[in-house]
Design goal:
Length: 154
């Protein structure tokens, strides 16, 4: 179907960003980032199950030929849907007691280390790098939420 073709194009494009050797493989550690970049929001357990399904014989890499059909199915079935915009806003507002519309990176890092799923320091650094407005050195969450919840089909 056209929907499958569009999904496959998006998946290939996202995959190739991380295919540093240009051999249709990616490091297994990049899989979650690829999935997130496609507008999906799985839990760590979901990611582990996904990787178990697509990883090449526990060799630490994933081949596009295995990744593509599994990820296409995920997209078509909307397996890891995004969180609604209002829920994201409420979550940030709980942390931003003064409702300033922004927060310090260290505030979010402190919270993330004490609540929810655990992140490695590398994952935390990657997340903060992606979220922090470089000019202001703040997480402007209202702007961020509108970027995250743009129509993911475009």
């Amino acid at each position: 179907t056209e929907e499958e073709n569009t999904g496959a194009r998006k998946i290939r494009a996202a995959f190739h960003v991380f295919d540093h050797k240009a051999d249709n493989t990616v490091d297994v550690r990049e899989v979650s980032t690829i999935i997130y970049s496609l507008g999906c929001f799985p839990t760590k357990a979901d990611i582990h199950r996904f990787v178990d399904e697509v990883e090449e014989d526990n060799m630490g890499y994933v081949h596009l030929d295995k990744f593509l059909p599994v990820m296409t199915k995920v997209l078509l079935e909307n397996k890891f849907p995004p969180i609604p915009e209002e829920n994201l806003l409420q979550a940030f507002e709980v942390l931003d007691k003064e409702r300033r519309g922004y927060m310090e990176p260290q505030e979010l890092a402190k919270y993330m280390k004490s609540e929810g799923e655990t992140f490695s320091q590398e994952e935390m650094n990657e997340m903060l790098t992606a979220l922090v407005d470089e000019k202001k050195n703040l997480i402007c969450y209202k702007e961020l939420i509108s970027q995250l919840t743009l129509d993911l089909d475009t």
